[in-house]
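Response to reviewer comment R2.3. The reviewers asked that we include at least one raw input/output pair. We reproduce the pair for GNAT family N-acetyltransferase here without editing.
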Amino acid sequence: MRIRTATPADADEMVQVRTAAWRAAYAGLVDAEVLAGLPEEASERYVRHLAEHRPLELTLVAEKGPYVIGFAVFTWDHSEADEDEAGPGTPGEVRLIYVHPDHWSRGAGRALMREGERWLTERGLLPIRLWELEGNAVSRRFYERYGFVPDGERKTTEISGASLPCARLTLPKDHSTDDSA
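Raw output as returned:
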């Protein structure tokens, strides 16, 4: 498996990974019709996004052979600062991380997270936070194994007209990216 920076050419495979991950992880949390009809035109949005240079954002893909099996976006916590104000001391954020369900529990998510954590730490974007859809046992187990802990913050997010609860998790300052941890 190889971790590398995403390019616009990865957009179609990224959408396929996202669609498969949503359908597997969000079943029972998100309306089944929404999951069945996930838009494939999202790849156009991904192409545009990946073509833009954003110094405080990193999109990584995990490849196995010639295929993208996962991807993640790391950036600053947009609720804490605008882009022109963000920098060392601004919290970092795992904006999203998806691995195709056929590759869950095989190290791709951990490898993506480790590289993103290193990148955020090098830029002083600490602490590192993320939001997870409450009730998503798969993601909660993954995040807690990695070292994230709930910090008590909550919000709702809207998915196709439904307001769903989310919990924020934070990676403790003493977390290590050491593989033996």
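The longest strand covers residues 149-159. The chain has five helices and seven strands. Further pairs are available on request from the corresponding author.
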